[in-house]
């Protein structure tokens, strides 16, 4: 007979200064600010970037914070990058406490659902859904080891499940709606394990993807960081914005 799952209250009670986080797509914009805020709290943060040089340059700007910032090369669509990083984290840290799946793209604003290219849809799904999925598969064992984890999937109000009457961005919206569905499925499976899985909509922020006119990046990142640092017991399987639960 299998033993019952451990309650979330039994999870590893380390302080932030002993925790390790990985943020994907983090050499600029929202991801960069999430790294900064986590490092300011004392977390050791792995700054994921597809371009190693850009990752190193970004990390230089965050020197001197309470927590260390370590640039790591990571293209979430490449299984070899994911496997290699999982091995490195196991070797160097023996744990991972926070995973922020921020890497995203393929904002096909002018496309239409009727005529969108299947190749564009595949590319959006590869980054926005499958990148997060395969990272979780590789890194969840490190969280299970200590019965503690915070997985934050960065989503969008543009997702089809939240804006069914919107026009444009068909591949992007569908990929984010799929990410939302997977977030809920994973959260249900991990309930009671000490690992919390939530999606965060940062709102429209002024980044390279969001474009000018959006709100401050600091505010959007703060909502993501709040989900990454949820205390015990914390919300699980929710869609959050500005630290508040909102309807899917």
Short description:
This protein is an alpha/beta fold. About 40% of the residues lie in helices and about 15% in strands.
Count of individual helical segments: 6
CATH architecture tag: 3-Layer(aba) Sandwich
Unreliable spans: 1-9
Portion in helices: 25-40%
For the record, what is the CATH homologous superfamily label? NAD(P)-binding Rossmann-like Domain
Briefly note the CATH topology name.
Rossmann fold
How many strands in all? 8
Provide structural commentary:
The chain is an alpha/beta fold and 248 residues long. It has 6 helices and 8 strands. Helix 6 links the parallel strand 6 (195-200) and strand 7. It starts with 19 loop residues before the first strand and ends with a strand.
What would the keywords be for this entry?
single chain; 248 residues; alpha/beta; Rossmann fold; eight-stranded mixed β-sheet; 6 helices; 8 strands; 39% helix; 15% strand; disordered N terminus
